[in-house]
Design goal:
The complex is a heterotetramer of chains A (about 250), B (about 120), C (about 350) and D (about 550). Chain B has about 120 residues and is mostly helical. Helices cover about 60% and strands about 0% of the residues of chain B. Chain D is globular and about 80 Å long. The chains are: A mainly alpha (about 250), B mainly alpha (about 120), C alpha+beta (about 350), D mainly alpha (about 550).
């Protein structure tokens, strides 16, 4: 059997290009697709379907948030006010910038500018890391304040805000307990989001390495495009998390 | 061989793909730039709007802005505006199912307080 | 039911005697069984129809008989038939089932109340008169009985098959079910929701007694203190009376006659005071601040057992005046017990 | 090929000259590694077949132990802790490691690309990844078992699973989480393949109904499974950190977990049954030599089941303290979802009308499916009806009901499918009379096992009980006796199918004279299925086209 090893792609187990498929031009073309167009469309459709599952995955947590926010609104409002809006806003901007770099990266791949592509992928990574850094800082603050849900969770800041120099109405003890639910959802949602970012950054580093090797400089851009979809999806999740978690009640009620 | 009969020698490779497949559209950096600036702008607006007391409108505005931002990310950063109808329907299906999850579950939570009749 | 009552009785008796059918021991049972027989008929007819179709076609159109198949596209008329007829039957089932559901879960107003606490792995029944039973329940014949149930730990499910009733016993929230026993005897009581290691040991017996026997039983098994009396002591010992004293200067609202009334909360919403509300107001007071009062009540979450909560709820439920609250306050300071009846001329019926 | 009219359509090539094709997907490459790193959908299907069979027998062993314990009313065989672990393992293994992947991951994987005229699924590597995820999930389940077991029940009811048990809940939850992603990837692969990889001429309404059924099931896998995943993640987090989104003492709502869990786990029932329905469509058509009565109705009823399947989950919670009003809504929707199943049953039955019917093993299993699934489906109406549900839920009635659907339905369909496509997958036939015996044994054993459980359920015997009142013993003994027969019924195919691998008659390309594209290629197929991209120029189940084609071949040959 005539088979030539396609050199470039560690991504696929099938590395044979059969003799009867000589019309296949590119080495990255998978043997089982008739055309590259078909392969490309299948790839992006598959990615979108995967994002569909991600919507439902986060959907469960968003619903939990909706429910408890309505049940325990005072606790949610006060607990939300303990998050830093400046940090949250900066982080949103950082993440959008990262997404913007990714978008430019996709363009660079499409117009086959290898240098720009590599630079943009690196920038995307850097902004992603900045985001995670800020997130770490925020987590660390919560840790020091004993606002990590669990046995060490401490509600005294909410029952006695004046003692901590915070301008908030004190919460009744039973309602103050419910801030734990807020913080649990906060950590679960942002944590799951951060986990997606960490996975994304690992993929980004791999893609950057492949990009500088020249894998995406000849018109084959599907991995970059599909990763772009993933990265933007992660952005979108944050776009919702930011107002829902940080901005519940920032205006003085009285 | 038995299976020869259903084969014909000539086959048009284009025939096997989606008949409505769109020409691959390349969004320019300038367009990305506009979207990027809009996103930053609305991030600022949403943060600022939270400090104004608008009563029930506060969460509505926050969510409306978030939805708007998400839509332009999907349309332009994710190229959904230039994709086939299938992809658009897929995205729609995702949000539809999320709404099913939310609304159908809420039928329980909202009417639970109504008690017996 | 379509069947004559005699035939019905005969059928049910015969099935029961051959251990194929549970006893019909509650008022609701015949209604449940009627729907059951309807559905069984539906299943038998439906399955028989499919079986007959398969059999007849298999015989008539087997290859020896019919070597060449005739291709048929389909038939809209036939397909519409087997879409609409099942749909109609299922819709009838839906309406019938829904009516039954509300009959089983809506207690009549005159039902007597018994509290049930489920815990790993036993049932505790608490009668208003203070009689406690473990894994047993004594009820009078022919009187509607409402069960107000709560779990102390995980989901349980309270099931009396011979009464055809069952309801999940939930942690953190009262659920109710009711029945009217129509036959003297003892019946199985099961926990049907898997609740951990000894799930299958969480069983008991329901004893239906004639009203006379029931009264005898109540008198024999009393612990001396009714639930409301227990609640009263708890009310004093937890210091509830210091705020809910019913005086004009009190920091908490007066609780006399509050049960069954509509309260206006600080956010303007109106709420009906029932068992569930009272329980929740003790545990999560800040969710239910009565209009005109400050949200200062502490939570009693973790300080009261479900039994204690039931005592308190029962006490507040039966509280017609603030007289005894105030008396308890006075006498608990002096160390004497409160007089049980107010002297003549006191404000016994001040509440609206 | 004998053209004489007999009671069978099986037409095998002349055994003296016939041989297995020299080149096929099985011997294309050699060595264990060529299997473990394969991208070929057919090889992955075989890998799946081996692994799900393994788990089926483990799950089945637990079922046997459960039935053995229930032989007597006393808790005498094992302790209640052990018993609880038995039924939990039985549930987890059978549902997540057998039923969900059974038909889709084996037959679906093997056949969908061939039926569509494609060389492979859209993402072979993801397909392989899906199998590895399945294996990891399976291994974790076994780890949970070996380390001491889990006793949550497969439903992981909170707060029991989160705060009251000290068994290996997190390990089991992780296993299901990972196996869930295997299922998501399978579904995703199918959807993309069906949308994008159809051969020229293969329009939507020329696809075999098997493909339609898998399309519908795949939608459920992709949209439902992630919700289960997040519910299990929350359970695990709640156990680790001791916080309470599902714990009422901390302000959480245990019913929220139920909502999230059943949002997946009800559609999961359709994930399990729909592919089975696809198998039945193929088998019934082939052995009655007729196109399926009302093809479009059957195709759309699959999609309708998938769609409605998402709107009915709360019927698992009718007595759990949900709002009465929403219970009404969900009960009504439950009644609606029963209709498409009824349509399917009657359409299959009428497919037989004016057919030319033969009774090979797959057909016997299909008849079994139709009878048992009818009972299973109609008893589901009992449980969808609010008032009836109160008495029947959480008893043996519900156990009997879902076993009629899952075992009587899905397992029968799975066996029908395995027998139907076995010659295609292996190139060899199994002994026909022995396999018919197995089909009949299974049917009898099944009814003996589960019919008594309906009666037990109405008598009120609760499910998941280790010990029970003595008056229920007779029916339990019947059930256990039935389980023994059923066990034999499942062992038989194992033996003769294994035997057939070496000694079975050579099957040839198309032993059943079926019309599907998969029957027009060699058995076992080539690695890339077709030597050239096929062109679909006829409807599905077009027996005249097949007759013409056969005639042409006969005339050209001689």
């Amino acid at each position: 059997m005539d088979s030539a090893l396609a050199t470039t792609d560690p991504n696929m187990p099938e590395t044979e290009v059969h003799a009867e498929h000589e019309h296949v031009a590119l080495p990255q073309h998978r043997h089982h697709f008739e055309t590259e167009e078909q392969q490309r469309e299948a790839g992006s459709f598959g990615m979108w379907l995967f994002l569909l599952t991600e919507i439902m995955f986060f959907g469960g947590m968003f619903f939990a948030y909706l429910l408890y926010r309505n049940w325990y609104y005072p606790a949610f409002a006060v607990a939300s006010n303990q998050l830093s809006v400046p940090l949250g806003t900066i982080n949103t901007a950082v993440l959008i910038t990262s997404g913007f770099c990714m978008a430019i990266g996709v363009w660079a791949a499409e117009v086959r500018k290898k240098g720009v592509l590599v630079a943009m992928l690196l920038l995307t990574t850097v902004f992603g890391l900045i985001f995670l850094g800020v997130k770490y800082d925020e987590y660390h603050e919560k840790y020091e304040l004993h606002h990590i849900p669990g046995d060490s969770f401490n509600t005294s800041m909410f029952t006695n805000p004046a003692g901590y120099g915070i301008k908030e109405e004190p919460l009744a003890p039973d309602m103050a307990q419910k801030t734990q639910i807020f913080f649990f959802l906060y950590f679960a949602m942002t944590g799951m989001h951060a986990l997606h970012m960490i996975i994304g950054i690992a993929l980004l580093l791999w893609l950057t390495w492949r990009a500088q090797r020249g894998d995406f400089s000849s018109g084959y851009v599907a991995p970059i495009e599909n990763f772009g979809l993933y990265w933007h999806f992660v952005d979108i999740v944050w776009i919702f998390l930011f107002p829902l978690l940080y901005l519940i009640n920032r205006h003085p009620l009285h | 061989m038995a299976h020869e009969a259903i084969h014909t020698d000539a086959h048009d490779p284009l025939n096997v793909t989606n008949p409505e497949h769109a020409q691959h559209h390349i969004v320019t950096p300038l367009q990305y730039g506009y979207v990027y600036v809009t996103l930053l702008l609305f991030t600022g607006i949403t943060a600022a709007a939270a400090y104004v007391n608008l009563g029930w409108a506060n969460p509505v505005i926050a969510l409306a802005i978030a939805c708007f931002k998400a839509v332009i990310v999907i349309l332009f950063f994710m190229h959904a505006a230039y994709q086939s109808r299938l992809i658009k329907m897929t995205i729609g299906a995702g949000f539809f199912m999320f709404l099913v999850l939310v609304t159908m579950t809420l039928t329980d939570y909202i009417s639970r307080a109504w008690g017996l009749w | 039911m379509g069947l004559s009552p005699v035939l019905w009785q005969f059928l049910v008796k015969w099935l029961h005697n051959s251990s194929l059918f549970p006893a019909e021991a509650s008022g609701i049972s015949p209604y449940v069984d009627a729907l059951y027989f309807f559905l069984v008929m539906m299943t038998i007819v439906g399955t028989a129809l499919v079986a007959v179709l398969l059999l007849v076609f298999s015989i008539r159109y087997r290859r020896e008989k019919n070597p060449v198949a005739t291709q048929i596209e389909g038939s809209t008329l036939l397909e519409a038939t087997w879409t609409i007829i099942p749909l109609a039957i299922f819709l009838v089932t839906f309406v019938w089932g829904a009516l039954l559901y509300f009959r089983i879960y809506n207690p009549p107003a005159n039902a007597m109340n018994i509290y049930i606490v489920g815990k790993q792995w036993m049932w505790k029944a608490e009668h208003p008169g203070g009689q406690h039973e473990i894994n047993a329940l004594h009820v009078p014949l022919g009187k509607p009985v409402q069960l107000t149930m709560i779990s102390q730990d995980v989901f349980h499910s309270f099931s009396i098959p011979d009464f055809r009733i069952k309801r999940e016993v939930i942690p953190g929230r009262y659920s109710t079910v009711w029945f009217e026993a129509t036959q003297v005897g003892t019946y199985h009581l099961f926990c049907t929701q898997y609740c951990g290691t000894q799930h299958s040991g969480m069983v008991g017996e329901v004893t239906v007694l004639t009203p006379q026997d029931y009264k005898k039983w109540l008198d024999q098994s009393t612990s001396g203190q009714s639930l409301a009396q227990n609640g009263e002591r708890l009310f004093a010992s937890m210091g509830c009376n210091s705020c809910h004293s019913g005086t004009a200067a009190a920091r908490g609202p007066s609780l006399a006659g509050v049960y069954g009334s509509k309260l206006t909360l600080t956010d303007g919403s109106q709420i009906l005071v029932d068992d569930a509300y009272l329980r929740d107001a003790i545990l999560n007071p800040s969710k239910h601040v009565t209009a005109g009062f400050a949200p200062i009540m502490p939570t009693y979450q973790g300080q009261l057992s479900e039994d204690g909560l039931i005592d308190l709820v029962e006490f507040i439920k039966n509280m017609q005046s603030n007289y005894r609250v105030q008396q308890t306050f006075v006498t608990s300071a002096s160390g004497e017990s409160a007089p049980t009846t107010p002297p003549q001329g006191t404000n016994e019926t001040v509440n609206p | 090929m004998s053209a004489a009219i007999g009671n069978t359509i099986v037409s095998l090539p002349d055994q003296t000259t016939a041989q297995i094709p020299k080149r096929n997907y099985i011997n294309n490459e050699h060595g264990l590694l060529s299997w473990l790193l394969t991208g070929d959908h057919k090889r992955i299907a075989i890998l799946y077949l081996i692994s799900i069979t393994f788990f089926f027998f483990i799950g089945g062993a637990f079922a046997g132990l459960i039935r053995l314990e229930l032989l007597t009313p006393q808790p005498d065989l094992v302790s209640s802790d052990t018993y609880n672990k038995f039924f939990t393992m039985h549930g987890i293994i059978m549902i997540f490691l057998f039923l969900v992947p059974s038909v889709p991951a084996t037959l679906g994987n093997f056949l969908i690309p061939i039926m569509l005229g494609a060389k492979d699924l859209a993402f072979p590597k993801i397909n392989l990844l899906s199998w590895y995820l399945y294996v990891i999930g399976g291994t974790l389940t076994l780890a949970a078992l070996v380390l001491g077991g889990v006793d949550t029940g497969w439903t992981f009811t909170t707060p029991l699973s989160t705060h009251y048990l000290n068994t290996h809940v997190i390990t089991a939850a992780m296993a299901i989480f990972i196996a869930g992603f295997a299922s998501i990837f399978t579904g995703l692969n199918f959807i993309v393949t069906i949308h994008r990889m159809r051969c020229p001429g293969m329009t939507w309404f020329r696809m075999p109904l098997f493909v339609w059924a898998h399309y519908a099931a795949s939608l459920l896998m992709v949209l439902g499974t992630p919700v289960l995943a997040i519910a299990l993640v929350l359970v695990a987090l709640e156990r680790i950190f001791g916080i309470g989104v599902f714990d009422p003492t901390k302000g959480g709502d245990p019913l929220l977990f139920q909502h999230l869990f059943w949002f997946y786990s009800h559609p999961a029932v359709y994930i399990m049954i729909l592919p089975g329905m696809g198998v039945i469509s193929e088998v019934i058509s082939t052995f009655s030599r007729k196109r399926i009565f009302g093809y479009t109705a059957v195709a759309f009823s699959s999609v309708a089941i998938a769609l409605f399947g998402f709107f009915v989950w709360e019927h698992h919670m009718f007595i759990m303290g949900v709002s009465n009003y929403s219970a009404l809504v969900f009960s009504l929707l439950t009644m609606l979802v029963a209709v498409p199943s009824a349509i399917k049953i009657f359409n299959w039955a009428f497919t037989l009308q004016k057919g030319s019917i033969t009774f090979e093993t797959p057909m016997l299993y299909s008849f079994g499916f139709m009878g048992l699934f009818t009972i299973g489906g109609l008893t589901g109406v009992f449980l969808g009806s609010l008032g009836m549900d109160i008495h029947l839920t959480e008893t043996y009635f519900i156990v009997a009901h879902f076993h009629f659907v899952m075992v009587g339905g899905m397992l029968m369909a799975f066996l029908a499918g395995i027998h139907f496509w076995w010659p295609k997958m292996t190139g060899r036939m199994y002994p026909e009379s022995l396999s018919k015996l197995a089909a009949v044994t299974t049917f009898i054993g099944f009814n003996l096992t589960f019919l008594p459980q309906f009666i037990l359920g109405y008598l009120g015997m609760p499910r998941r009980y280790h010990a029970y009142p003595p008056e229920f013993q007779v029916l339990n003994v019947l059930s256990t006796a039935g389980a023994t027969v059923l066990g034999v019924g499942y062992m038989l195919p194992m033996l003769y199918l294994a035997w057939s691998l070496k000694y079975g008659a050579i099957a040839g390309d198309n032993p059943w004279q079926a019309t599907g594209l998969e029957w027009q290629i060699q058995s076992p197929p080539l690695t890339e299925n077709f030597t050239e991209t096929p062109i679909m120029d006829h409807e599905a189940y077009d027996y005249e086209w097949l007759a013409n084609k056969t005639k042409k071949e006969v005339t050209t040959v001689g």
